[in-house]
Design a protein that fits this description.
The structure holds two protein chains of two kinds.
Chain A (H helix, E strand, L loop, with lengths): L1 E3 L18 E3 L9 E4 L1 H19 L5 H22 L8 H71 L5 H65 L22 H19 L7
Antiparallel strand pairs in A: 1-3, 2-3
Helix pairs in contact in A: 1-2, 3-4
Chain B lengths: L27 E8 L3 E6 L4 E5 L2 E4 L2 H7 L4 E2 H6 L4 E4 L17 H18 L7 E8 L5 H12 L4 E6 H8 L4 E8 L4 E7 L8 E4 L3 H15 L7 H11 L10 E6 L2 E6 L1 H9 L2 H13 L6 H5 L2 E4 L8 H13 L4 E3 L6 H12 L2 H6 L2
Parallel strand pairs in B: 1-7, 7-8, 9-14, 14-15
Antiparallel strand pairs in B: 1-2, 2-3, 4-5, 4-6, 9-10, 10-11, 12-13
Classes of the chains: A mainly alpha, B alpha/beta.
Chain lengths: 282, 366
């Protein structure tokens, strides 16, 4: 099937039918441009007739076999050229197209839901991880402080015992104090390194979660875009979002709050009665 | 958005509401719907507001269906293609009973009412992932069967729905809950409602059949009587009324072209319009008189001075002044205030009720 003329409104609303079938498609909507579709056979016949006409007009008396040969060459060249320059176009009946669109939409919606669920799960895990890291840091510091005090004491005792046999001169006492201070300093630095290493592991996990969340968020945005595109392709309006995220209800600061509360209650009671089939709603 | 919007099929709609609440975590959409005899208006908490003509038409046979390429048509398009359609205006006088030929066709009207409600809700563009809570203002006169039918129809498209009387929703929308008389003039009925700080009961409401359709009928009669050569239909008369409707002395001249033997001929129908439009004034004031006289005498004066004029029929020019004058004549005093948005007064009020309704009430009515 070949399109002739301007092809602006070739859409699913004008499905391609069985191959070779001739069809003149009507504009899909006001303002659309007309698209004429012709079958391959019809096109070939038209080319043959045009070649014959050209030869008979300009080469009067040409032998019929030459004319036939020219037509045959023109036809095969035409098919060759068309195949060479043509682009494959999918044609689907409307019902199949709608089905396909629905399937794509359902698939994308499922992906969106899965992404949203994963995102929620991730956010939950991230929150608890952050909390864990905070708690862990505090407990590590506390543990380190308690055990550090014991270790410091033990280290001090050992250093003192090393100096015990060397006498009691003021110089030695000063050296002992210096050695003890240096050792303590080194010990504290090592302890901090250990704590930092433990916390870094958890921080890496938190960062990983954050990266994953960023990726999921952008994936969600993409699926939303995809849904919009599908809706646009089928002419579906996805709707307009409400300004409210939650159920509202009367606010205690409203004017006539008590009166309105009573009125709401009366309307509800009347509708409840109507639902149960006992009374007419107000 | 126009009232000629159509849908191809009532059976398949890709974004029809589902009852799966698990997927509705993206927000709450409130709808206020004024289900009228002539027009149905919707206002929504997503900012959408639409009015559609309350005509619903179904192809008469397979040939019409093939020609129209639709299972159901609404509004002006339905009216335009009426020769190929079984045409319904399902809430004529608040009663789902008769079709346009006068034959009983309750089932047909019921289906039309359901399709009309669905179409109205669809026009508000709800999202699939939102909870949709609707309050529908219906004629005070609507029978319990009508109300059940309306509820049934709405439940198919929303998560929870409540009904309330139209004049009440108009007053609620304007925060006029105490010592107010509401006149809601529709096509089929005029509802009068007395508000006194509590839910109005039967004794606070009067429904009259002197409304828009009644004016159309009277205008048709007058035109037939005075210009027998003129050709016109009820729809043409309705359009003339909507364009030129007015009461009182300061009325501009109203000249319309009506066909005479196929030739458009100008007719000055100023007096006929004035007379026809004035037919609803005395019965309305009489009804107001009943509501005033049965009220606490101490507050009767206050009540008479807070009369709210609403509904599509209230757009008749000079109607507020005509009712005020008639009240002065019959009741000694009166002051009529026109609502700013006659077409959306009921729907806006219903939306406000929906907003103010506590969450647990909506839950219980699911």
């Amino acid at each position: 099937m070949f399109g002739l003329g301007k092809q602006k409104d070739m859409s699913a609303e004008q499905p391609a039918e069985a191959p070779q079938r001739e069809k003149s498609a009507q504009p899909q909507q006001a303002g659309g441009q007309r698209l004429n579709l012709v079958g391959r056979d019809q096109f070939a016949r038209a080319v043959a007739a045009a070649v014959r006409h050209g030869i008979e007009t300009h080469f009067r008396g040409a032998p019929p076999e030459h004319i036939e040969a020219a037509i045959s060459t023109a036809k095969s060249s035409m098919v060759h050229l068309l195949r060479k320059d043509s682009k494959a176009v999918r044609g689907l009946p409307k019902a199949a197209f709608l089905k396909e669109v629905q399937e794509s939409k359902a698939k994308i919606e499922a992906q969106r839901e899965a992404a949203r669920r994963e995102l929620e799960q991730m956010l939950g895990q991230l929150g608890s991880r952050r909390e864990e890291v905070g708690q862990m840091k505090a407990s590590l510091i506390e543990e380190s402080r308690i055990s550090g005090m014991e270790q410091d004491y033990e280290l001090g005792q050992r250093i003192s015992s090393l100096f015990d046999g060397a006498g009691n001169s003021p110089e030695l006492e000063a050296i002992r104090k210096q050695v003890t201070a240096l050792m303590m300093q080194q010990m504290h630095a090592e302890r901090e390194k250990v704590i930092e290493a433990q916390l870094a592991e958890h921080r890496r996990e938190v960062t990983k979660f954050e990266r994953r969340i960023t990726k999921l968020t952008s994936s969600l945005e993409l699926t939303e875009e995809e849904l919009k595109k599908i809706a646009a392709a089928k002419g579906i309006d996805l709707g307009v979002a409400s300004i409210y995220r939650d159920v509202q209800g009367l606010c205690a600061a409203d004017a006539d709050y008590e009166t309105k509360k009573e009125l709401m209650s009366s309307i509800f009671a009347a509708n409840m009665a109507l639902q149960k089939g006992t009374q007419v709603a107000t | 958005m126009t009232d000629t919007d159509v849908m191809e099929s009532t059976e398949t709609n890709d974004f029809e509401k589902t009852n799966n609440n698990d997927t509705k975590d993206q927000g709450v959409l409130y709808l206020g719907i004024d289900l009228g005899t002539s027009r149905t208006s919707v206002t929504a908490s997503n900012g959408e507001r639409v009015t559609i003509s309350s005509w619903v038409g179904y192809p008469k046979d397979v040939v019409s269906r093939k020609l129209l390429q639709k299972d159901v048509l609404f509004g002006d398009e339905a009216l335009e293609k009426r020769l190929s359609l079984n045409l319904y205006r399902p809430l004529a006088q608040g009663v789902l009973k008769y079709n346009e030929d006068g034959e009983e066709d309750y089932e047909g009207n019921l289906k039309a009412a359901k399709d009309l409600i669905r179409q109205a809700i669809r026009q508000a563009k709800p999202r699939k992932d939102e909870l949709v809570y609707a309050v529908i203002g219906c004629p005070a006169e609507a029978s319990i069967h009508n109300r059940e039918a309306i509820l049934e129809a709405a439940r198919e498209s929303v998560d929870s729905v409540m009904l309330c009387s139209e004049p009440f929703s108009v007053a609620y929308g304007l925060d006029m809950l105490d010592d107010v008389l509401v006149i809601d003039i529709g096509a089929g009925t005029t509802d009068l409602c007395r508000m006194h700080g509590t839910m109005p009961d039967e004794s606070d409401q009067i429904t009259l059949t002197f409304a828009g359709d009644c004016i159309d009928t009277r205008l048709s009669e007058l035109l037939k009587e005075r210009y027998p050569e003129a050709q016109f239909t009820t729809q043409m008369v309705k359009s003339i009324k909507e364009r030129f409707g007015a009461v009182g002395e300061l009325l501009d001249a109203c000249v319309v072209d009506l066909p005479v033997n196929g030739k458009p001929t100008p007719f000055d129908i100023t007096n006929e319009i004035r007379e026809a439009c004035h037919t609803i004034v005395p019965p309305i004031v009489e009804g107001l008189g009943k509501l005033v006289s049965s009220f606490d005498p101490e507050f009767q004066h206050k009540l008479k001075n807070r009369v709210l004029l609403a509904g599509g029929g209230s757009q008749i020019k000079g109607l507020d002044k005509a009712i005020t004058a008639e009240m002065h004549r019959m009741l000694g005093s009166g002051n009529v205030i026109r609502t700013e948005e006659p077409m959306y007064g009921g729907a806006n009020g219903a939306l406000k009720i929906a907003h103010d309704m506590p969450a647990e009430y909506w839950e219980q009515l699911k």
